[in-house]
């Protein structure tokens, strides 16, 4: 990508942010990204103002069942928020830069902290379906093949050329989440671990699941990491959680088959708990962080 193409990308994000800022009075400091089947989070926002992705300049469209495709502004526990009810994935055919455009738009709108949720397969055999895993680190598999949202000329208006990723998942926010989960009586299904992203859309083979587990991954999915890299590059704090929607198939004797319907069904079963967890954490943000 040339310098001028990089500048065009900045202008593209600026146009989208300006259009949104002129269309709503909400000035969000918190950005939320809803994972598969977790769009109910957006319904918690008070005085919601909803924009279909198809009406927002430069926004991609959601093509995956369980991702409604709208941006919702409002307040959550008193905090001004913007919530993506539906995210974009590499396998939908968009470039990695396009699927992460909303993070840069968040930044240009004034967002300081990003909350991301996703559905993921459990690789760690101590996990069970319905567990919620706080993400403490990630493995960026597409990154090993050169698919990284920061590829190409760096635009200093967003961030530095070589951003640090050892602090990608904010330590204070993870502690806050553990505290809140304990108060809510959620400790029995709370985990903390490493999320590995693959490009999808095919689910993993048994050999791939075994390899990922051996590499140190606790859960596997097809999202979140590109958004986190882009958000951290732009200096926003990140907190991410995986709902273990299915257990990865690790044995050749197993009859289990990963499928998107099970992913959405687990989302429905755990929806209320996830919503309570996220809204309580967001409500406490000012006591525990600068945002
Ligand atoms: O990561 P989210 O958006 O929750 O979606 C997850 O669910 C889908 C597979 O069922 C994949 O897109 C995977 O990444």
From TrEMBL:
Judged by the first EC level, this protein's enzyme class is transferase
Q: Which GO terms describe its biological process?
A: purine ribonucleoside salvage
- Where does this protein hold a purine D-ribonucleoside? 204, 246
Q: Which residues form a coiled coil?
A: none
A single Gene Ontology MF term assigned here is: purine-nucleoside phosphorylase activity
Q: Give the matching SUPFAM superfamilies.
A: Purine and uridine phosphorylases
Q: Which organism is it from?
A: Zoarces viviparus
Instruction: State whether it acts alone or in a complex, and with which partners, per the record.
Output: Homotrimer.
For the ligand (phosphate), the binding residues are 36, 67, 87-89, 119, 223
Put simply, this protein is called Purine nucleoside phosphorylase
Transferase as a keyword of this entry, yes or no, is yes
Q: In which pathway does it act?
A: Purine metabolism; purine nucleoside salvage
Q: Which reaction does it catalyse?
A: 2'-deoxyinosine + phosphate = 2-deoxy-alpha-D-ribose 1-phosphate + hypoxanthine; 2'-deoxyguanosine + phosphate = 2-deoxy-alpha-D-ribose 1-phosphate + guanine; inosine + phosphate = alpha-D-ribose 1-phosphate + hypoxanthine; guanosine + phosphate = alpha-D-ribose 1-phosphate + guanine
The record's InterPro entries line, in alphabetical order, gives: Nucleoside_phosphorylase_d, Nucleoside_phosphorylase_sf, Pur_Nuc_Pase_Ino/Guo-sp, Purine_phosphorylase, Purine_phosphorylase-2_CS
Q: Name one Pfam family in it.
A: PNP_UDP_1
Q: Which UniProt keywords apply?
A: Glycosyltransferase, Purine salvage, Transferase
